[in-house]
Amino acid sequence: MGADLHVHTTASDGTLKAYECIQKAVDIGLEAISITDHDTVEGIDEAIETSKRYSDFIFVSGIELSTEYDDTEVHVLGYLIDHYCTDLKIFLNKMKAEREERSKKIVKKLNEIGIKISFEELKGHVNSGTIGRPHIAQLLVEKGHTNTIKNAFDKFLLKGRAAFVPRKKVSPEEAIQIILKANGLPVLAHPVFLNNKKQITDVLKLGFVGVEVEYPNHYIEFKRWLSLIAKEMDLLTTGGSDFHGGFKGTELGSHTVNISVIRELQRLKGERE
């Protein structure tokens, strides 16, 4: 079935633990996955240990860093990272502290409009990793303040809504550099969410080595265009389901790439070492 190179666990905003993602991948016949949790590497060790049970299965260490470019959210995937890299750990610890502070401010704003939740209550809903807006949205659903996670964002958490709190900006260049310091490969995630094709090409020139082409929201013509741009810019093409455990509507393995993509990533990393 190939490789799903975009998977989230409970270490960020997924609903399955890392070992469960590996087991599920094996059960459905995938040859490989990469766990790319948001701004954390806390699920990687568990995934590595679990994948050792399956001799023919390949696990690729990864991460998805949240950045901003020209007031647009840009996510940076990092593949084959050294998750023990000191510089990476310092960077992620800083991001974690900033996310926690942001979450406290969001909770305070929700309290001010009559929605009574506490930060301690929120922490109890996070299995591990970093607290973020998806966890707040989930708590709002569970407490009956809205009926879906999407509605929680639309009603309370997005820009212009009562509980919106801007996050401290990280540039794509910063994310790319920290991935390179961790001996990883920076790849632009789901470019469909950028504003237009010019912005996509401008962002790709910032130092990416690849672009995510296979993705749930990418229509056929867009994937063709991305593949053409990747060829022109000598970029690798990757892909995955952006699996979060089902609540986002995409299943593990629903969007995959050939296992040869991993070999290309490994080859490029070898050339850079």
CATH hierarchy class name of the largest domain: Alpha Beta
Output the number of helix runs: 10
Structural class: alpha/beta
Radius of gyration: 18 Å
Q: Major sheet: size, sense and barrel closure?
A: 7 strands, mixed
Q: Output the CATH topology of the largest domain.
A: TIM Barrel
| Global outline | globular
Strand content: 15-25%
Q: Please, what is the average pLDDT?
A: 94
Number of domains: 2
Helix content bin: 40-55%
Assign the CATH superfamily of the largest domain.
Metal-dependent hydrolases
Strand element count: 7
Structure description:
The chain is an alpha/beta fold. The radius of gyration is 18 Å and the shape is globular. The chain has helices at residues 18-27, 44-51, 86-112, 119-123, 133-142, 149-157, 172-181, 197-204, 220-232, 260-272; strands spanning 3-7, 32-35, 58-69, 72-79, 185-188, 210-214, 236-239. It is built from ten helices and seven strands.
Outline of the structure:
41% of the residues lie in helices and 15% in strands. It contains 10 helices and 7 strands. The longest helix has 27 residues.
